[in-house]
Design brief:
The structure is a single chain. The protein is an alpha+beta fold and 337 residues long. It has two domains: 190 residues, Jelly Rolls, CATH 2.60.120.10; 113 residues, Arc Repressor Mutant, subunit A (Orthogonal Bundle). The chain is built from ten helices and 14 strands. The strands form two sheets. Strands 2, 3, 4, 5, 7, 10, 12, 13 and 14 form a nine-stranded antiparallel β-sheet that branches. Strands 1-6-11-8-9 form a five-stranded antiparallel β-sheet, with no helix packed on it. Helix 2 packs antiparallel against helix 3, helix 4 runs parallel beside helix 7 and helix 5 packs across helix 6.
Length: 337
């Protein structure tokens, strides 16, 4: 996707050669295969990571400031943007060239924006700020598939009409699931590979779906148990996506502030399905994807967190009735028919 957002870090910082030139800051999450640049102005430092994908342009900023700073940026093509504030230092404020406040995103919250071509600046608070964002082609919403995303309708209308006026959605919480999704996306980026482009699109859609759910939970105030179960199931899936099998259900429950027995009881009562069965289902789905994407059983086993090919094969055959090699061979043969 063509880069259309140009952050003017050079207006305040000097670019340095490598991360070794920075003494105060490092990146919070490593964005695999991204272009990294490093910036410094005395004790104030920044790391910018950018990745150009076919379906979206992703960036991750870690920045340490002594005072509030206004960093300019330019938009040269209208797109839809989403901005995640992952830090505790204070709100991020966005202004247009007339210094009109467009958006204010608090700690651990996020917001969608439609930004037409213009000069803007972003006000960053003192302390360490961590920001993840991406902009993407709004054309992924077509043929009526945007019906359920009512929070995006004003932005989509502005994009389709190429409005000269900026728009922003309501903001929403960024919780554990969202952070895990972001980390999984960043850690698995591969440039110029077809299977990775489908992975990026899938992850971006998941984040958009998760945004819809977060807004629904926060503003619609539906059944609390239903929302808790949704969060528990999706946190299990997010852990599988990031760690494979290398986590316990107790860890997931504790991160949510509950005991494993409490969450398992609620889940079984509400869905009739044990938490372990959800974990195995999500893990099997990932095993299949890794086998098809990378081919070698050993690579798939390692990426899914198994200690050996034997353990991976035992799990796979238990849940499918066939070996990983047989599954991969069958799928390969079918694609060649």
């Amino acid at each position: 996707m063509k880069k259309s957002m140009h952050l003017g870090l050079h207006e305040y910082f000097e670019e340095v050669d490598s991360r070794a030139d920075l003494t105060e800051i490092n990146h919070s999450i490593h964005m695999r295969n991204a272009e990294e640049t490093y910036w410094k102005n005395q004790q104030e430092e920044a790391v910018l990571q950018e990745f150009d994908g076919h379906q979206g342009y992703l960036y991750f900023i870690d920045i340490l400031l002594e005072d509030e700073r206004h960093i300019p940026f330019e938009i040269d093509h209208a797109d839809l943007h989403i901005l995640y504030v992952l830090s505790d230092s204070g709100p991020i404020k966005l202004y247009n060239q007339d210094t009109h406040l467009l958006s204010k995103v608090a700690n651990h919250r996020a917001q969608y924006l439609y930004l037409p071509p213009e000069d803007y600046h972003i006000a960053l608070p003192p302390g360490k700020s961590t920001i993840f964002g991406f902009y993407f082609r709004a054309s992924i919403f077509r043929d009526g598939n945007d019906t359920k995303y009512t929070f995006l309708h004003p932005l989509l209308d502005a994009y389709r009409s190429q409005s000269p006026l900026s728009k922003c959605s309501i903001d929403f919480r960024v919780g554990l699931i969202t952070q895990l999704y972001i980390e999984t996306l960043c850690r698995n980026l591969v440039a110029k590979q077809l299977h990775n482009e489908s992975f990026i699109l899938e992850r971006l859609i998941r984040l958009i779906e998760l945004s819809k759910q977060k807004i629904h939970e926060e503003y619609d105030h539906e059944d609390l148990y239903k929302n808790l179960i949704y969060k528990y199931i999706n946190t299990i899936k997010a852990h599988v996506d990031l760690y494979g099998q290398n986590f316990s259900l107790q860890e997931v429950a504790e991160k949510m502030g509950f005991s494993e027995s409490h969450m398992s009881h609620i889940l079984k009562r509400q869905t009739g399905i044990p938490a372990k069965q959800y974990k195995d289902r999500f893990l099997l789905e990932r095993c299949r994807k890794e086998l098809l994407a990378y081919g070698r059983v050993g690579d798939a086993a390692e990426r899914c967190g198994f200690s050996s090919v034997a353990a991976f094969s035992k799990f796979f055959k238990k849940h499918t009735g066939e070996t990983p090699v047989a599954f991969r061979t069958d799928k390969t043969d079918r694609t060649q028919l």
